[in-house]
Design brief:
Structural class: alpha/beta
Strand content: 5-15%
Shape: globular
CATH class of the largest domain: Alpha Beta
Number of strands: 9
Distance between the termini: 10 Å
Bound molecules: phosphoric acid mono(formamide)ester
Order of helices and strands: HEHEHEHEHEHEEHEHHEHH
Largest sheet: 5 strands, parallel
């Protein structure tokens, strides 16, 4: 199919057919990445810049590997080396990079809507690598890929997203994608992390993990996003939080026996999940998510830059 979008800013504006096309192409790149001939020349001559204003291990590295595997030139600019440190606005920084005849600018920024703002003025394709509490579209796409692989179809699945929902761009993008495909999404969160933002999508919040996890096909655990809270805002001890909202074998026992556990990372072992489950090959698909992260970002760069 011809991909009609110049940018990837959110899940909202992608159709089911477009998401399926991304996931099908991801499958091809998974195969390519597993083969000895990982590298292609598909995007030879193209230039991709990674501009990250927040820490990242998985997303930044996988965009860089994805661009290189497709033969593109890639430059990653950590925030401490960008001129925003000298008073330049984010928009100025982004448009100066855009003026260098680049093809894609991958942006992560703590403020909601930053990639969308840059996209209104840039000539390059803008890819949202996470904007504040708003969206993380490539994370939801790689999560969908892994879920589809394990469960064959997203339609009819029941997925619980558990933890710090209110600060989570991963939750927003996943809820948007999964409900588009006919999955039922539950959130499990204490009142201080719950939100009514997804009521209109049919999402129900559970305060009790045993109720929320009853019969689910998949559970997605989220870390507490301390960096998005004011000092002292999170007033519960991590021990108490773990007791009520940390995933362990006892709490998981009410899910379907073949339930899979996802986590976007970084994982805080012993807080939102015990290590024994995060590393349990019978349930955990966390490393598969990381593998899919490279392939899904290859698919996105391919579709945007081959247009
Ligand atoms: N999932 C995710 O965005 O991880 P990073 O913060 O390491 O990129």
């Amino acid at each position: 199919m011809t991909f009609p979008h110049r940018h990837l800013l959110d899940i909202e504006r992608l159709s089911l057919a477009e998401i399926n096309a991304i996931l099908d192409l991801t499958e091809r790149y998974i195969e390519q990445n597993r083969s000895p001939n990982r590298k292609s020349t598909k995007l030879e001559g193209k230039t991709v810049i990674n501009l990250f204003f927040e820490p990242s291990t998985r997303t930044r590295t996988s965009f860089e590997i994805a661009a290189k595997r497709l033969g593109a030139d890639v430059v990653s600019i950590p925030v401490e080396h960008s001129s925003t440190r000298k008073g330049e606005t984010l928009l100025d920084t982004a448009l100066n990079l855009d003026a260098m005849h680049i093809d894609a600018l991958v942006i992560r920024h703590p403020e909601n809507g930053t990639p969308h703002l840059v996209a209104t003025q840039a000539k390059a394709s803008i890819v949202n690598a996470g904007d504040g509490t708003n969206e993380h579209p490539t994370q939801a796409l790689l999560d969908a890929f892994v879920l589809r692989k394990h469960k064959k179809s997203l339609k009819g699945l029941t997925v619980a997203i558990c933890g710090d929902i209110s600060h989570s761009r991963v939750a927003r993008s996943n809820i948007c994608l999964l409900t588009k495909f006919g999955a039922t999404v539950r959130t499990i969160a204490p009142p201080y992390f719950a939100t009514k933002n997804y009521d209109n999508l049919g999402v129900t919040n559970f305060e009790d993990m045993k109720e929320g996890l009853q019969g689910v096909d998949a559970v997605m655990m989220l870390r507490i996003q301390h960096e998005r809270m004011a000092e002292g805002e999170f007033a519960v001890s991590l021990k108490d939080y773990h007791q009520r909202y940390g995933l362990d074998a006892k709490k998981l026992a009410v899910a379907k026996p073949d339930a899979v556990i996802l986590h976007p990372g970084p994982v805080n072992h012993g807080v939102e999940i015990v290590s024994a489950l995060a590393d349990d090959p019978r349930h955990s698909v966390i490393r598969e998510q990381v593998e899919a992260g490279v392939a899904v970002r290859m698919a996105i760069l391919d579709l945007l830059l081959s247009r």
